[in-house]
Fold:
Amino acid sequence: MENIYTKRDLENLEDRYEFLFPVPYETKTTPDQLVEMKEVSFAAITRQLVNDGFSLLVCIPHLPVVKAFKQAEVLSANHSFRFLRIPHQDYQAAIEECLMEHANSLTFFLVQDVRQLQYELPKTSHESIKLVNMSRNELYSFWIEDRECTVARWH
Structure:
């Protein structure tokens, strides 16, 4: 099942779309399109995105150390969190298993283009990562347990 929302639909909501849809981030820019998918296979979608060159971005707390992400590129860090990038060529089964095992305690998503992406890491576990400069990008976020995927597209 799939629901598609336009930018106009999202702007007419009573609250910010990030608070009404299952996304693990905040943005200043409303996406041009948001697709909400239910009853999806995380593994199948992820495999297709990795084949298409998407990168996995993960915001993890400093502790505990997650071995599957040891070789990941550290994009940024603060006193509480590290923001990691796993490029499509380094994505492997151990990473996917780790995501599935720790899905409720990690913030992660797959993004098409990381070159112009800017972000602000959360300072506490009660905050979300803030994404900036999302123009011409596509971002997939997952709620594995509920078999849901939310796709945000900026043209």
